[in-house]
Amino acid sequence: MIVVLHPNVEKTGRAYRVLLEYLERLSGISVRVHDESGATEVITELYLIGDTSKLSSDPIAAFEVVSRVIRVHKEYRILGRHGANDRSLQFTYNGVSFSQDSLHVFAGLCAVDTREHVEQTFRVLREHGQKCARAGAYKPRTSPYSFQGHGVECLPYVFEAAGRNDIRVLAIEVTHDTHIEEITQALEEAGNPTGVMLQIGTRNTQNFELLKAAGKQHRFPILFKRGFGITLEESLNAAEYLASEGNPQVIFCLRGMKSNFADPHRNLVDFAHVSTVKRLTRMPVGIDPSHSVGTRSVAPDGIPELFHATAQGVIAGASLVLVDFHPDAAKALVDGPQALPMEDLRWFLDDVQQAREAYLERRKLVPGAPH
Ligand code: PEP
Ligand code: MN
User: Fold this and answer.
1) Tens digit of pLDDT for each residue in 237-285?
2) Each residue's pLDDT tens digit, 151-196
3) Which of 16, 169, 188, 360 has the largest CB neighbor count within 10 A?
4) For residue 202, how far is its CA from the centre of ligand 1 (angstroms)?
5) Atom of ligand 1 nearest to the CA of 200
6) CATH no. for 103-364
7) Which region, left, alpha or beta, applies to residue 71 given φ > 0 means left and ψ of -120 to 50 means alpha?
8) Distance 53 CA to ligand 1 centre (A)
């Protein structure tokens, strides 16, 4: 059950406290408080966790501060779109705002390999006005003999270089709860020069203990990859673990599905699900064309297939593009064949912008849409 309060309710006010005391006395129910901060108002939502099936909504709706009570039957009750509760989740992290209507590109290294490559990547991103980037430190690899990422060792110089180049949000995959602590500590020690979005990789989509750990912390937003071999419903339920543990600042990222039907691509591109996930849930939806397409191959029109796949996601309303770029892909220790050269960044960003403008124009064609 979700209790939506009137805008800008004072948390120190008597009316709010009376409601909270009432809810907290309900047996078998715990209350999670979440604030949705829009441009002009803050809307507080109270999530009642536990068996709410026998709970009557009328007495709760009668409280002065309550705007409406929504009974949620769906499994993904916080992140889902449920009739009356269909505002896009939105949050601002380290000065960058995310919602179903925003768009940010996170370009950069699949895996941090050398300091120089980190430096070169962030410098070019800064030259192109980018505030977000990717930089993999903990790499889940198919083979135990492959490079596993520099882990905690590289965090100090990655954070320092990010800060110096005005990168505000770095997507960094975590594969264990201790990585969250290591990132927190390294950020503190570096003086918080940048911010981190914790990435949950496709191999960990249903690592429920990791999801609980990521959901319990409120400091970092989460970039959650769709599971590559499970149903969409299962992936959405897994994302809900993050919200049910207390962190609804989640971006759901499509990254292609494992299937031989994808050949010769690495994974079967699933970006037609951008609008589906936006319809079913309130999460911003991202796309990862690099891990979907998996090659730098160029179509006969001169446009790399990776650009084409990206445009397909963006023209459908994606909010985030996670993409591998590398200053010297031949020397990359992970996923070199799919990394785009830094010289292509301007072209890539312009192409994304064109697709974005086409998406916004498409919205104007909707009957009754404002022009
Ligand atoms: C990645 O983005 O580096 C990655 C490993 O992605 P995925 O979990 O989607 O394979
Ligand atoms: Mn990769």
Assistant:
1) 999 999 989 999 999 999 999 999 999 999 999 999 999 999 999 999 9
2) 999 999 999 999 999 999 999 999 999 999 999 999 999 999 999 9
3) 169
4) 6
5) 8
6) 3.20.20.70
7) beta
8) 38
